[in-house]
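Spindle pole body component
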Amino acid sequence: MSGKQNLGSFKSLARGIIGASAFVQESKSSKASPAEPVKRKHRVKSIGGREASSPKSFERAFSELIIGSLPTQLQEYAIIEDLLFVMMGIEGKYIGVNKADGLTEEIRYIEGIDYVVDSTLDPSLKDLAERILPLATYYTAIGAFVETYSEMKYGFVNHALCGAIRELLKEYLILITQLEHQFRTSSSFTLQKFWFYVHPTLHTMSNIHSLVMEIRDNYQESMEDDDSINGYDELLNSDGFSKKNSIPQQVKGGGILSILSYRMSQMSGDPDTKKLYVYLLSKASKPYISMMHTWIHHGEIRDPYDEFMIQERKNVKKEHLKEDFNDTYWEMRYTIRENTVPPFLIPFQKKILLAGKYLNVIRECGIAIEEPRKKTIDESVAESKADRTDVNMNSDVLLAMDGGRFVENIEIAYKRANRTLLDLLLKDQQLLARLRSIKRYFFLDQSDFFTHFLDLAWSELKKPSTQVSITKLQSLLDLVLRNPSSVAYADPFKEDVKVEMSSVGLVEQLLRIINVEPTAMTRGGRAAEDLGGRRGEESDGEGLDEGGGERQTYAPSVIGSIIGSITGTLVGGHSTGGGKQLTGIEALSLDYVVTFPLSLVISRKALTKYQLLFRHLLYLKYVEQLLCNIWTEHFKSFHWREESGHPSITAWKNRMYALRQRMLVFIQQFSYYVTNEVLERQWRILQSNLAKLSTVDQVLEYHTDFLDTCLKECMLTNAKLLRIFAKLTHTCVLFANYTEKFRKSLMVLKSQSDGNNSGPVSLEQQEKTLHKFEDNFLYHIKLLIEALNFYSATETVQFLCLVVRLDYNLYYYNQPSKR
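Structure:
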């Protein structure tokens, strides 16, 4: 409707209304005479003594006219004219803006202008007009929403939604044009017909208005919540999530699609409204589905406004996998935005995430990702038979989402990406061969090479760890591995094995691999500081007669509970405090060079667990070797084999032989349990699982479970068990180191028994020293057996296998406790 046409029709209607008014007033004031019709005809041109021939005089006179004083037909024509203007947001003569609501112009514009009708209008016409007026309010509010949310910062989904609403508003304006045409050309066009024509549109506009107001309300609530959390944006940025704008997730991207799909599901009894939301959902979801297509087929996130359900952490890089023991590249590089996934994608969110993650790994390996051919997709759809039983894929959602095509696309993309990455890991990167190689070195499997290495490097490993030459050790290891007589000679990955010296003891290394909350780590640090004094006292006492002994109360074991409790109580080779410097054999460890994408599976965290198990095994072998050396000394030395001729000395020697044998049996049985009943058994389970895996995540899961189970069943995640075991092994090491003193004492005792007083050594003193070793070993092995029985009921029954091996004939069970 042009402005000139509106003004012309408005003026012509005004002339008619003014003329009719003059006629009514004249007929009331005087009676008619033959000559008066001419006068009335002449007086129609003037009101109040002023000529009404000019446009301004017409408008001024019309504006002062009260519509209720006009005939009903003219009132109807006037109000229809006003409604046509008001429905487009233009204020009329008799329909004005309600300024009594107390709202500002800006708020009134956003929420929709509320109009009021002249109170003098005929009641029936006024009622019809008030029924039609909500259209004008809806139109202004919807128009303001479209104008605001079409800005770039609101994202592609809002742009698409505004485009769809703009199309509906265009149809609305076409309807107004058609109504105006009827009003100008048809003499039978009435306000009742006007209402009849706009009534269906009123329902549609009401639903659109309700939608846009819900989106606005969600925006306001989200902004208030964000304002109540200080530093929220900075926290996100510090975590590595890109924060491109301040628009809340609830009113863009998946949040908008969630609102639309929910409204559509709630309108199952209203076909017209459901059809409206199906249309809006189909239009608004197109950019979102396009982003999803790019993600699941290319592994890329093209999301400049943070709308997509997958978010990326820029600061989490694959290079950290080889450096940080606690790196979470696979878990944290790409994650799902909580509470912003559209309902129709919730059943597929994991597959969507994994499909893109798999392709992203392949892309970062430098392998080109080809777009799947349409023919291939069609064929795969027919064969895949995607399962939709777990999703509410009703006909409306299918209609809105291109007939459910996206379901098959997700299934196809997921299977394709998963198979491609699996082939890359298992075939190109030879994952299984790599794991076998790691097992050979870190679990000392077929370790003839390592025995040879220890023999060659023993002079270096006896030194303090800070004085050991790593270069020399690496040269010796390379020499051993290249020996044609060694089992490792045929290993194609032997060049990736490296020697390293740990600067910390076993306990501190445990703290780095145990998966705990940051708050628990903080508490553990404080606990370690509090126990510093106790740790120094125990280190001075060498752990033999540590008054008070162990408390026989067993708290439930939780992985991570060892952070504070072990640090202050372990001694000997498993201790890092007390001023005792680690020797080379105690600090010796291995490392393994792994490249991406194998570093996803064999990450620094996994390698640290392998290193922990290696150091545990190596220490067992070291203690066993010390005890075997004592056995050799007892067997070969003349002083030990010779009959003393003194019953007390013979009894003392027999007690020493028995204690040595009990210690050796304990270490050998424990080593057998660790290697054969834990590591080897779990390795067989891992091999079985890897032979039948179907997804990449299963590879990560099986490998992680393998290592965690090995650590748990080797007693490396339980504070109580590890503390007792450390004291037992330390007792064995002290006993082995004290053997030379026992030998010298034996020589003196024999000399004394022959009548030669050659020293102050007394048999009573030696028996007392030996008794301390016996008492300490017996107490702690009984305590270990009791703890294993307890934790076999709360953690793993595998501990019972160790109990049977350590006390198969109930020897220790029947021994009276000396403490």
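The first helix runs from residue 3 to 29.
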